[in-house]
């Protein structure tokens, strides 16, 4: 069984959508990634930091999903990272109301010794220097390094981001971020430019319009499953990344053909994430539900056509 290292925030979120609002609830990139990856029974470890205000029950939840938390630093006198946002009626855009870095401001990641030889590393959305610091601790070169990032780091740490991008195999970003990173409107051209920066594979997420996978001259498109309603998009991109990384870690097949399957699994898990606030749906999600929805994806996307 492959080992999977997950780097990212374990945090508090407060969310407001047209369907309601929450007080502080469990969130964070590493949380969503870990919960999604747990459906593939991989040996995973989270690398993050929380404050003394973080409930033990949340840490226990991660452990119950077989996510090793030895790499989650607890700063007793500190406060946990907190983000609050309000989504617009279209659910595709949002306003950040509060961002409190708290213990994340001085985070120095420590990868547990037993996981420094992990085959797969999932670098969740954090400062590029933190992502690079994790790669520096690996005692053997991972077979696959996946990186997620966002426009914030393109605005304030672009040089450091370029440095870490050179060291990865797969990048997952949304269409807006791909355009900002490359200065190209065409996503095909943008993916080619990102390839030139280092990654062998480029995944461009398009929200409710699915995801694109690029590798050299090969391209694959996976639609998003049409849903009756989207309750809360928070964490959907991280859930996609967790499903993508978890499937690849379980199958130990890092080919373009198998990454197509990983994209579908990522999209499937993300479709559950948006059904409830925060991590609520991912906490209750059962494996048979995932398989049933995978069948729906198959029916949605497969067809026979005779070409003359």
Can you give keywords for this protein?
nine-stranded mixed β-sheet; 11 helices; five-stranded mixed β-sheet; alpha/beta; 25% strand; UDP-N-acetylmuramoyl-L-alanine:D-glutamate ligase; 308 residues
Explain this structure.
With 308 residues, this protein is of the alpha/beta class. The protein has a single domain (3-301), classed as UDP-N-acetylmuramoyl-L-alanine:D-glutamate ligase (3-Layer(aba) Sandwich). It has helices at residues 29-37, 56-64, 128-137, 151-156, 158-165, 175-182, 187-197, 236-251, 256-273, 280-284, 287-301, and strands at 3-7, 11-17, 20-21, 25-27, 43-51, 67-75, 82-87, 94-100, 120-123, 144-148, 170-174, 201-205, 211-215, 218-222. Strands 6-5-1-9-10-11-12-13-14 form a 9-stranded mixed sheet, with helices on both faces. Helix 1 crosses helix 8, helix 6 crosses helix 7 and helix 9 packs across helix 11. The mean pLDDT is 95.
- For this structure, the CATH topology is UDP-N-acetylmuramoyl-L-alanine:D-glutamate ligase
- The proportion of strand residues reads 25-35%
Biggest β-sheet description: 9 strands, mixed
Highest-level CATH class = Alpha Beta
* Domain count: 1
Task: Walk across the major sheet and give the strand order.
Answer: 6-5-1-9-10-11-12-13-14
Q: Write down how many β-strands occur, each being a DSSP E stretch of 2 or more residues.
A: 14
Structural class based on helices, strands and sheet pairing: alpha/beta
Topology as H/E string? EEEEHEHEEEEHEHHEHHEEEHHHH
């Amino acid at each position: 069984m492959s080992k999977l290292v997950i780097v990212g925030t374990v945090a508090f979120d407060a969310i407001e959508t047209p369907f309601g609002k929450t007080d502080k609830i469990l969130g964070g990139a590493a949380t969503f990634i870990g919960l999604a990856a747990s459906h593939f029974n991989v040996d995973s470890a989270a690398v993050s930091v929380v404050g003394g205000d973080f409930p033990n029950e949340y840490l226990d939840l991660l452990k119950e999903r077989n996510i090793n938390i030895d790499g989650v630093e607890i700063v007793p006198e500190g406060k946990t990272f907190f983000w609050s946002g309000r989504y617009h009626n279209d659910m595709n855009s949002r306003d950040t109301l509060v961002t409190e870095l708290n213990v994340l401001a001085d985070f120095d990641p420590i990868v547990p010794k037993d996981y420094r030889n992990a085959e797969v590393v999932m670098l969740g959305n954090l400062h590029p220097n933190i992502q690079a610091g994790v790669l520096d601790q690996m005692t053997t070169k991972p077979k696959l390094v996946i990186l997620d990032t966002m426009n914030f780091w393109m605005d304030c740490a672009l040089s450091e981001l370029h440095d870490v991008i050179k060291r990865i195999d797969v990048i997952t970003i949304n269409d807006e971020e791909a355009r900002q990173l490359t200065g190209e409107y065409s996503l095909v051209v943008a993916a080619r430019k990102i390839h030139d920066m280092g990654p062998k594979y480029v995944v461009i997420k398009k929200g409710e319009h699915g995801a694109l996978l690029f590798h050299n001259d090969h391209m694959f498109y996976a639609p998003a499953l049409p849903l009756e309603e989207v309750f809360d998009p928070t964490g959907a991109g991280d859930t996609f990344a967790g499903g993508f990384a978890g499937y690849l870690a379980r199958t130990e097949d890092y080919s373009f053909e198998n990454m197509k399957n990983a994209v579908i699994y990522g999209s499937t898990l993300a479709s559950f994430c948006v059904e409830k606030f925060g991590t609520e749906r991912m906490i209750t999600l059962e494996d048979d539900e995932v398989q049933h929805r995978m069948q729906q994806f198959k029916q949605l996307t497969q067809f026979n056509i005779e070409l003359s």
